[in-house]
Amino acid sequence: MGNIIKRLRTVRFYPLRVVCVLGHCTKSIYIKLKIMKDNKEITEVLNDLIRINRDRIAGYEKAVENLEEGDTVLRTLFYQLSDESQNMQEELSEEVIALGGEPAEDTTMSGKIYRAWMDIKDAFSADDAKSALEACEYGEDAAQKAYAEALDDSTGFPPAIVALISDQKDLLKISHDLIRNKRDDFEAAAHRTHA
């Protein structure tokens, strides 16, 4: 009797053992429960990245709104980067669905703060293009940080998921550097104009 009580105490703290202790468990049920738990963790990470990409799309749409009509180079770049995030979001959503989850449809709180910051900054900015590029670089920095955290959290994830996150992070790094270089070009042009 004492042995059963010890086992029941164990059961209270380790619900997965309940089934196994009582003998009604097969290894496949235990594995299935573990996979469901793992899938939930994976979908949470992927949904965070979906939100970041939704932020990025909204940020570039906001940046396009704030550009002057004649600034077709930046307008085209911002649309391309928005499309890039749309594609990444779709890839991530497909993985979430394949894991039995629902893709996120909202944005992050920091993304909302970022867009509000862009509104305030644009209201006081003298150079719309440079200001938009600075705000976009800020957003790209946030995306890099989110993807780095996702990779840190991906220990034990299937290799295909880790590869997807890593590939998207690499693509975002290229976009970040492109935005930074464009911002530097605008700064250099402004210095030449004032010199």
What does this protein look like?
There is one protein chain. The relative contact order is 0.12. The chain has 195 residues and is mostly helical. The protein is 84% helix and 0% strand. It is built from seven helices and no strands. Helix 6 (128-152) runs antiparallel to helix 7 (159-194). The radius of gyration is 23 Å and the shape is elongated. Mean pLDDT is 77; it is low at 1-36. The protein has helices spanning 2-13, 15-21, 27-66, 72-98, 109-124, 128-152, 159-194. The termini are far apart. The longest helix is centred in the first third of the chain and has 40 residues, at 27-66. The protein has one domain (37-194): Up-down Bundle (Ferritin), CATH 1.20.1260.10.
Structure summary:
This protein has helices at 2-13, 15-21, 27-66, 72-98, 109-124, 128-152, 159-194. The chain is mainly α. The protein has a single domain (37-194), classed as Up-down Bundle (Ferritin).
Task: Quickly list its features.
mainly alpha; Ferritin; 7 helices
